[in-house]
C-alpha cells in the first residue's frame, strides 16, 4: 500500500509545520501555483508506521548476511552515525566562516592524512561524493595533466574487460574513448594484449586490484611499467581496497591516482543506494589538479583551499564540496581501527573469503579461478548446475533470499558465465559463513530434486519475482491522483 | 579486535579448512616487496568512549551560531521522526536495491519520492537522486544536449543570476565534453534575467537549452513563462533550477509558459537534510515523459510479480553504466539514497499545506529581517522587486569586515557576494528561514547597528 492510499483530504501532521501561515502579498499571482501539489495527507503516526513497515521489507547488514561482491557490505558501527550527527556538526552551514568550523575541519584534515598514509599517496582530496565521482575526478586530472604538458594526442583510456561499468562511463564523461583490455584465463590482465594496446594515444589505464574477479594481479609492476613507458598514467579503482588495507598500498604499486569508496572500505552506510564518499589520492605530479576544496593546517588553524589557492584544480564537483557527514563517519571508523586495525581488516576479509571459497569447493561448487588465492572476494560459477539442472545463477540468488541470505553479486563481472561474486567481509563470523555454505548445498539439492521450487523463488519475500520487462515497457514511475485503487488493489 | 568476531579457535580451524599455515600465507600472491610494514603515520586505535570524547569536543568547537546564510543550503526544522526512521538499520545499512524482492522497502520509498517530486515540479518523471543540486544541474545539461532532437547544438545558456557554485560545478563536470556554456547577464536594477540580456549573449546561434533558476540566486523571481516560451521558440529545451520549498507556493516548472519546462532539477536539502557543512544532500532531476530515456541515475518503477501482485523494481537500467558501460547516460552508480528516504518522510509529514506554511514563514521572516536591517542608515536592498526568502543588501562598509565582526557575536550575517559579484560593491545575501525568531532577527539588526556605529 502506498502512502498515498492512506491519504485523506484535510488530514495532516500539524505539529511538524509552523503553527501560523503568514499571508503572502508580494509574490505576483502569475508566478504562484494554481493548485496544491499532490502530496500525502496523513497523521504523524500513519507516516511513522508506514515507513517503519517499509523498512521491514528490506534486507540489510543489520538484519542479514549480505555477501554482495565488490560492495563490501560490512558492519557499519553505530558510533560512527551518532558521532557524525552531533548537533555542532549537523547545524554547521557550509558557508559558515572557518572560525566556526575548526572542529569539523580538524576531522577532515586528520582523515586526509590517514588516507594518505594508508594508500601511500602524496595528497588527498575528500571532495568526490562516491566512487564514480572519484573516477571522474581522477580521469579529469589525467586529462588535465596531459593537457598541461601540451600532449594532446592522448585520447584513450584503457579499461580491463572485468572492470566495473563506471570505469568506461567515467572515461567517456571526461572526453576519452574507453578501450577494453582482455583478462587472461588466470584472472590477471592479459599483459601481451596490454603491450599491444598502449601507445602515444594512451592517456592512462583504470585498474581495480585486487580485480573484480577476486584475485590480486601479480603482474601489477609490469603493468605499471608498460603504461608508464608509453607515457600513460595509472588509475586505481579503490572499490576493492578492503582486501589490501594496511597490507599493500596503491602508491607503492605505482598508481598515479586512486579513489577510495569510503562506503565500502571505511564502513560508512550504504543507505539503500547512498550516500557514499569517493576521496581521490594522487602522486606529486597530479597534485595541482586535485578537486577542491582541501583542508590545510598552518600549525595554528585549519583553512579551506579553493581554486584561488589552487588555480590548476579540476574544480568543484558539488556545490559545497562533498558528503561531509559521511567523511565524519569514516573518520570515526578509522580512529577506532587505528594503525593496528587497518591491516586486520584485510587479514580477516581475506581469511573469510578464502575459507568460504574452500568450503564451497569442498561442497562441489566450481570456483572460477581455482588455482588462485581469493582476495577478499571470489567467484563461483554455476555453469555446471545450470547445465545439469537448468537452474541458473539468478535462480540461486533468489532462492538464497528464502534462506535468509542476501544474494551475492550476480552476472558481474560479465566474463564469467553464471557467476556469483561472493564477498563475505571481515565482520562475519565463522558460523554465518557455515550457514551460507549449508544454504548453498541445500539449494543445489533442491535444484536437482525440485528445480521449479528454485526457479520460482523467492517464496517468502513480500513479493515474488517481479516482471522487469513490464516495468520497462509499461512505465509506472510515479503515482498520480485517481490511479491508486485500480493498480494497487 | 574491533568489528572482527573471530576467536583464535575460529582462526585455526578456518586456516585448516583452507590448507594455509597462517593468515600471512593468504597474501602470498602479492609480490613481497610491495607489502608494507607498520603504518607509523596513523594513530593507534581508540575505544568508542575515547573517540566520542574527541568528537564531542570538536563538535563544540564549531559553535552554534545563529545562521542568516542561505545561498543554497537552508536551516529548516526537521521533524524528529525523519532521522529516527531513516537511520533504522534496515534503511541505513542496505545496499542499492539490486535484489528487488529483498528491497521492497527502499524501492517503494524511491517510488514515493519520485511521485512527490513529480507532483512538486509538475513533470512526469523523476529519478531517485543525484549527488547534490549542482551536480544534478550538470547532469541536466548533459541530458538536454542528448535530448534536444531539434538541433545538434551543444550551447547552454546559464544566467549569472544562477548560484555561482552551480555554475562552477557545471563547468568542471561538462567542460571535457565540448559543451559551450554561455553566461547571461542580469538586469542591474531587478537582479532578474530579461530576454534582452539573453539575446545579447547568444545572437542567432542554435541552442541546446536555457537554464532558468526560480527563484534565482538573489532570491528574485524570473519571468519563467516568457523565458520558457522564448527558449521553445528557439528550439531550445528549458531546464528549471528550483527550490522544493518554494515550489509549495510557486508555479511548477511543468506549468511554465505554453508547453512547460522540459527538465527541472535542484537541491533536495531543504526537505529534511541537516546543513552538515554541505553534505550529504541530494540532487533531484525530473523531466517530461518524452525525455525519460535520457534521464540519468536510478529510477524505480511499479510492476507486477509472478502472482500479479504489485511491486517495485529498478527500471530502465539499459540507460545505466552497469549495462551500457561507455554508452551510459551517466557514470553515476551510488547516489544519495538515504537522503531520499529522509526527504520522502519529510514531505509526508509536512504535506502540501505544511510545506506551504514553511515557505510562507521563510518569506515573511526574510521580509521582517530586511525591514529591520534596512532601518540602519546605509543598509538597503540592492535590487527592487519581490523575493522568495533571500535578498541582496548593500552595506555601508566592507562586507567582509562586518561579517567577521558579526561572527564574533555568533551571528552568521549572510554571504559576502564580493568574490563572485565584485560589481555589486559591498553586498551580502541574507536569508531568514522559518526557524529564525523575532528575537534573533532583532539581535542581528541591533548588533550590526552597533558595529557600524563604533567603526
Ligand atoms: C569495482 C567498482 N568500481 C567502482 C564502483 C562505483 O562506486 P560508487 O558506487 O561509489 O560510485 C563500484 C561500486 O559499485 C565498484 O564495485
UniProtKB/TrEMBL annotation, chain A:
It catalyses: N(6)-[(R)-lipoyl]-L-lysyl-[glycine-cleavage complex H protein] + glycine + H(+) = N(6)-[(R)-S(8)-aminomethyldihydrolipoyl]-L-lysyl-[glycine-cleavage complex H protein] + CO2. Its EC number is 1.4.4.2. One of its GO terms (molecular function) is glycine dehydrogenase (decarboxylating) activity. Transmembrane segments: none annotated. One of its GO terms (biological process) is glycine decarboxylation via glycine cleavage system. HAMAP family: GcvPB. This is Probable glycine dehydrogenase (decarboxylating) subunit 2. It comes from Thiorhodococcus drewsii AZ1. The gene is gcvPB.
From TrEMBL, chain B:
Residues 3-443 form the Glycine cleavage system P-protein N-terminal domain. GO terms for biological process: glycine decarboxylation via glycine cleavage system; nucleoside metabolic process. Keywords: Oxidoreductase. The keyword Oxidoreductase applies. The keyword Oxidoreductase applies. Its EC number is 1.4.4.2. It holds the Pfam family GDC-P. It is an enzyme of class 1 (oxidoreductase). SUPFAM superfamilies: PLP-dependent transferases. It catalyses: N(6)-[(R)-lipoyl]-L-lysyl-[glycine-cleavage complex H protein] + glycine + H(+) = N(6)-[(R)-S(8)-aminomethyldihydrolipoyl]-L-lysyl-[glycine-cleavage complex H protein] + CO2. The glycine cleavage system is composed of four proteins: P, T, L and H. In this organism, the P 'protein' is a heterodimer of two subunits. Belongs to the GcvP family. N-terminal subunit subfamily. The glycine cleavage system catalyzes the degradation of glycine. The P protein binds the alpha-amino group of glycine through its pyridoxal phosphate cofactor; CO(2) is released and the remaining methylamine moiety is then transferred to the lipoamide cofactor of the H protein. This is Probable glycine dehydrogenase (decarboxylating) subunit 1. It comes from Thiorhodococcus drewsii AZ1. The lineage of its organism: Bacteria, Pseudomonadati, Pseudomonadota, Gammaproteobacteria, Chromatiales.
